[in-house]
From TrEMBL:
Domains as described in the record: A pair of annexin repeats may form one binding site for calcium and phospholipid.
One Pfam family, short name: Annexin
Keywords: Annexin, Calcium, Calcium/phospholipid-binding, Repeat
Record's protein name: Annexin
Stored InterPro entries: Annexin, Annexin_repeat, Annexin_repeat_CS, Annexin_sf
Amino acid sequence: MEILLKTVETMPVTEPEMWWGTMGTVRPFPNFKPEGDAREIQTALEKKDVNTLVRILTNRNNAQRQSIAQAFHTLTQKDLSQALKKLLSGGLEDLLLGLMMTPAQFDAHRLRQAMEGLGTDEETLMEVLCTRSVQQLKDITIAYKQEFGRHLENDLISETSKDFTKLLLAILKKQQENMQGVIEFQLIDRDIKALTEALSGKKADSAPWIRVLTTRDSDHLERVLSRWENVRGESVDKALQIHFSGDLRQGLCILVCSIQNTPLYLAQRLQTSMKKSSVVRGVLVSRSEEDLLSVRVEYRRLANASLYSALQKEYKGDLQLALLALCRAEDV
């Protein structure tokens, strides 16, 4: 797919920087000077210059933004996030404050917001937990306790129910089973058999699906799911839709999709939730340094339109500016 780099005007990024390293859209800013950025941000706050705030904070990676916050505190004796909060409001405030958090803090806040108030946002819980590594999940658990003085596991138990709770906890605590002495193809066959038998009774048994999907590495699971689909002659997603229901069905489908193709799942999430700015902000902020370029490609294939254009169409003003800055470029 040809990628046309049509970057936001306020963002001086060159093509070589765009394509270096990971599949993220936000990269380390060259010739980074945190003290200079802190002074420029101080002036922008005084002048209520939102464009400058967006330009700087979306053009620095998270580690650099943390350095800017430290330099800003040294310069002004004030907390940068609190200063931003006083000036901004709405979706732009949430987005820039999210950028100032560490990745683990940001995910912890998304999980807490998904469980606060009336009702629980099960899909956001699954999105965050399913698309993070084992180490990231450990970091999120620690950050959640530090930010809210609460245990993430306990909140998940109190805000969800039954097998869906078991699924969430199994993902959160991802632990590899000890399979020493078991040959890979034997383990694949064993897992395929377990998943198949779990669907053979009058009522599907979720336990083998939860166990296998949360105790194997991604390469192994890709082989298992691919072989399972070949043997069964149907997609895993379709089988789950038939045999399970409610939150558990949604959760298993999201987990399988994220295992098979995380960028595709996130593209689908953006497409179906484009009008929900909290979801869009959450995905763009959390994936901007990981795989947002891949998400953009999948979105283009899925929607027959670029993510950049979709954001332009759906959002306006300063929030649009910030979202486009994170998205970075048009795909044609």
